[in-house]
Amino acid sequence: MLFLLLILVSATNALTLYVILRNNSDTPFDKVIRYAVLVSLVHSVYALCARYYFADSPFIDSGVPFGLLYGPILYFLAFSNDEKRPSRKNILLHLGPFLLVTIVYIVFLVKAEVLQNFSLPYFIILYSGKVLSMVLYVSYLFLNQKKMIADGRLRKLINSGATWLLLIASLFASLIFSKVFQKEEMGALFPGVILYGVMLFVSLLIFKYCIDSLLQYSKTEEALSDDDLQMTKKQYQKSALTPEILREYEQKLNEMMEKEQIFLDTELSLESLSRKVKIPKHHLTQLFNMTINQTFYQYINSYRVSYSCQLLLDEPETNLEEIAFKSGFNSKVTFNRYFKNLMECTPSEYRQS
To answer: Taking every annotated instance into account, which residue ranges of this chain make up the domain HTH araC/xylS-type (predicted)?
Structure first.
């Protein structure tokens, strides 16, 4: 059972990492997601090797300090939601306990006699530290989540991770009690099925989020390539629409965009745009391809990016997630992609500059 769980966790993390790389997003939030999945993958592979190649040395698995990483990762996920990039000093501050305990862990692996003399204090400090870290980070997140996380989908993902982290913290607390007061062996007690079952569930949540983000981007990226545009132009060369009619259409469309700002409608589609401007859909398609030289999504999102630039300057305290929705984007991923493509910087970098 445990072997199967570890295989599933490792496979899910590996697949998620592949999806993240396919998504090719370099926003701070997606970078933290990438590191979180990588940590979980290394943890599950390490546990798999430790439990089945070093079964006679339970300390190799039960003494590893990976648990000290998950609280900081949860914090950085929430922190990076607003495109913020933590400083190196901030990163070292939060990862300091893990790095320090890792050094001690390596010393114990090398010096078996030291482990025999200090194993009990090490386990008490390690697992107490894991419990304290998880509880403090989760408490901070729950108290500040509305301020830190505007997107309901991201909030649901992070809150799910936080809830399961509390479950693991309670598990570790019971291990400390058993170790100190009942003198049980940690290796024999360590309930790996529960721990790695939780890891599998959280890994599946992250995998679903990454798949949804990839599909969302693919859906909004219904833009044609340059070759496709050229091919479409050839198809329209024999069209009955004269250049004068196309110019009238373009003027009418631009006026609607500038005066009525219909691009702010997050549900705007080619069909609904056709109804709003009273231009047949196939005429609009020809207008985009023959005169404007942009696809529908490129044209609409250029207005949205321009509008968001003004919001970023006029509303310095507004969360970037809210800026995206106010500008007409229906996801932060799409907002970041189009913004960086057109402005050659991220929204946060634009605001700071």
So the answer is: 247-353
Name the strand (E) or helix (H) holding 313: helix 296-314
Low-confidence ranges of the chain (pLDDT < 50): 186-190, 220-229, 231-232, 238
Long-range CB contacts for residues 311-314, cutoff 8 Å, separation at least 24: 312/347, 312/350, 312/351, 313/351
Cα angle, residue 63 at apex, residues 193 and 186 outer, rounded to 5°: 60
Q: What is the pLDDT of residue 183?
A: 57
Instruction: Output the pTM of the full model.
Output: 0.64
Instruction: For residues 122 and 130, give the distance between their C-alpha atoms in angstroms, rounded to a whole number.
Output: 12
Query: Residues 6 or more apart from 16 whose CB is under 8 A from it?
Result: 37, 203, 206, 207, 210
pLDDT value of residue 149: 62
Residue 155 CA to residue 1 CA, distance in Å, equals 32
CA distance 20 to 23: 5
Q: Could you tell me the CA-to-CA distances from 312 to 59, 257, 304, 316, 349 in Å, in that order? A: 52, 20, 12, 6, 10
For 353, the 3-state DSSP assignment is coil
**What local confidence, expressed as pLDDT, does residue 194 receive?**
75
Cα–Cα distance measured from residue 21 to residue 210, given in angstroms and rounded to the nearest whole number: 10
In this prediction, residue 226 carries a pLDDT of 46
> What's the pLDDT score for residue 227?
44
**What residues have CB less than 8 Å from 147, skipping those under 6 apart?**
none
Task: Report the alpha-carbon distance of residue 18 to residue 350 in Å, rounded.
Answer: 30
Measured between alpha carbons, how far is 342 from 27 in angstroms, rounded to an integer? 15
* Contacts (Cβ under 8 Å, ≥6 apart) of 33: 20, 77, 206, 209, 210
Compute the distance between CA of residue 84 and CA of residue 349 in angstroms, rounded to an integer. 9
